[in-house]
Design a protein that fits this description.
The complex is a heterodimer of chains A (169) and B (406). By secondary structure, chain A is mostly beta strands. Chain A contains one helix and ten strands; from the N terminus they run ββαββββββββ. The longest helix of chain A is centred in the N-terminal third of the chain and has 11 residues. Chain B is an alpha/beta fold and 406 residues long. In chain B, 30% of the residues lie in helices and 19% in strands. The chains are: A mainly beta (169), B alpha/beta (406).
Chain lengths: 169, 406
């Protein structure tokens, strides 16, 4: 049993038998965003799971993705409940739709990853006023201990995808 | 494939609860016992008539085989279910199934929680300090843990796709506060305005403080038995026309990969529950939505077809959902104003609406005489309510539903 990793006051625990998260984080620690792809139908899935939710095949291969995507939805936490986030408010949590496998296998499906919107250093939270649906982002990695890194996302200069929208305030 | 229906074969015959408080000073066991006793007495049953007990919880309550014997109940069937908001309706269906299978005759279902004083349901305190593992790793390290934080993407995307506004959904709180002002049990009885809601402080955008429900200490209980048995009992039986339990979107544990994420589980549940009942939304007189937040009410009402998808904001701000409107919602004030009970209280309220025994502030309420005057401090009984519908919610991806009639 590996030691828990401490991050913002939380204990993050990845047991040895949890190959899904252990291998995902091992790749992230090398600053590579890799997802499991089905050996039978080729579709990738996130989070890593043991079977393909589209064809039920148990075979998989880790596949690297570009880490580029678009903010599909977001929220801004003003009143943090986790003690380690109190000093970070207001912070943006984003749902990023990756460029790979958009609208596959059906029009409504995509690879969507939850992360914080951070500055390019991967460590500092971005000003929450910058977040908006439609803005383009790329992955950056926040190292957490020796065995883990959290994939986070930062804004890019690329033109937005579709309509840009944020909550009127 | 058409699903089986047990329409009108089972009834809710008793309802009961404890005080709604913010500091019960009691154990969940003590509260569960009181709520169950109240429901048994309401039904005109004795302890020996109840032989099945179901409850739901999240490691924050007392098990059925402790609560039932405290009242002298000998069990032929019991089960403790892990889960939250979508459990009420699901367990009513399971109770019908247990009776149908011949395992028992009459089932009491309870939920007992110190959601304010012990296990803060909003996720603060002990809940915020729990280690993070498994699927929680996909969201909790990013400061996304509480219910409001977990639902935020869905609400925000609905605003983006359909132009829904904070002001529109604030009307849910306005309506429910109007209803709570006629409810002696309600924790928050003051009527509020749209400006009060959108002017309250932000919790997690797009949610303001007054978009969120009230953490509460409370226990609730309903009793289910066969229509045949119900006919001999004291209380006027309320018939179950249809029930759907924990119907889910694809990829329920990480549902954001299957869109539209503004779609919630009612999209899948509606055909089951309306199919069993043989009615449609236009036949429903009173709704009971799961108002953990103002937004959840709006999303459920549109998904079950009370308005078109995307028009929920207009629907909830039209006056339809208020007492005196065409189809009032959460006439007790619901989780936003009466108090949070993980869904049970809205079923209890609808049972009382159908029986015409709502405990409002009309002078003759104790004798069942209602004024139907919905001004402050008066009535909350809906005139001639024949059919009610409850819309249970655990999260955007999971929901339950229940249709009842008198």
């Amino acid at each position: 049993m590996p030691q828990p990793v401490s991050y913002r006051g939380m204990s993050l625990i990845v047991p040895d038998n949890d190959s899904e998260w252990k291998e995902y984080y091992a790749h992230a620690r090398q600053h590579r965003l890799m997802l499991r792809a089905c050996n039978a139908c080729g579709l990738m899935r996130y989070p890593a799971m043991h079977a393909c939710p589209w064809c039920m095949d148990l075979g998989w291969t880790w596949k690297e993705v570009s880490g580029r995507g678009t903010i599909y939805s977001y929220e801004t936490v003003v009143h943090a409940i986790q003690p380690g986030f109190k000093d970070a408010t207001p912070y943006a949590v984003v749902l990023v739709e990756l460029d790979e496998q958009r609208a596959k296998p059906t029009a409504d499906e995509a690879l969507r990853i939850i992360a914080n919107l951070v500055k390019p250093d991967g460590l500092t939270f971005e000003d929450a006023k910058e977040v908006a649906i439609g803005r383009r982002v790329r992955v950056v990695f926040q190292d957490v201990g020796e065995s883990m890194a959290l994939p986070q996302f930062t804004l890019t200069d690329e033109p937005p995808q579709g309509r840009v929208w944020r909550l009127p305030e | 494939m058409a699903m089986k229906t047990l329409k009108d074969k089972y009834c809710i015959v008793g309802v009961g609860e404890t005080e709604y408080s913010r500091g019960s000073g009691r154990t969940t066991r003590a509260m569960a016992v009181e709520a169950m006793r109240n429901a048994i007495l309401d039904a005109g049953l004795r302890a020996s008539d109840v032989d099945g007990v179901l409850d739901y919880q999240g490691g924050d309550s007392t098990f059925a085989n402790h609560v039932a014997p405290d009242l002298g109940i000998r069990l032929n069937f019991y089960m403790d279910v892990m889960g939250g908001g979508s459990s009420t309706e699901a367990l009513i269906g399971l109770a019908m199934g247990a009776i149908e299978a011949g395992m028992c005759n009459t089932v009491a279902i309870y939920r007992s929680m110190n959601g304010y004083s012990e296990f803060r349901i909003g996720g603060t305190g002990a809940r915020a300090a729990q280690p993070v593992r498994g699927m929680d790793l996909a969201q909790v390290p990013f400061g996304m843990r509480s219910a409001g934080q977990t639902f935020g993407f869905t609400f925000m995307r609905h605003m983006y796709e359909y132009g829904t506004t904070s002001e529109q959904v604030a009307h849910v709180k306005v309506a429910h506060s109007k209803h709570a002002s006629q409810n002696p049990k309600a924790i928050q009885k003051e009527r509020v305005t749209v400006q009060d809601v959108v002017g309250s402080r932000w919790i997690v955008k797009p949610l303001h403080l007054l978009d969120c429900c009230l953490e509460t200490d409370n226990a609730t209980c309903v009793i289910v038995t066969s229509a045949e048995r119900a006919r001999d009992l004291k209380a006027r039986p309320v018939y179950i026309m249809g029930v759907a339990g924990r119907v889910s979107k694809p990829r329920v544990d990480y549902h954001w990969v299957h869109g539209p994420i503004s779609r919630v589980a009612g999209y899948y549940a509606k055909d089951i529950v309306f199919g069993q009942a043989g009615i449609g939304p236009e036949d429903v007189d009173v709704t009971g939505s799961y108002d953990a937040f103002t937004f959840t009410t709006m999303l459920q009402l549109e998904e079950y077809g009370f308005c078109k998808k995307g028009e929920g904001g207009a629907y909830v701000s039209s006056g339809i959902i208020e007492l005196g409107g065409k189809r009032p919602n959460n006439t007790s004030g619901g989780h936003l104003c009466e108090g949070y009970t993980h869904g049970m209280s809205m079923v209890i309220e609808n049972v009382r609406q159908l029986r015409r025994t709502v405990d409002d502030t009309c002078p003759g309420a104790a004798d069942g005489k209602h004024s139907y005057d919905y001004s402050v401090g008066k009535c909350r009984q809906v005139r001639d309510a024949e059919i009610t519908m409850n819309l249970g919610w655990a999260m955007p991806a999971t929901g339950s539903a229940l249709i009842m009639r008198i």
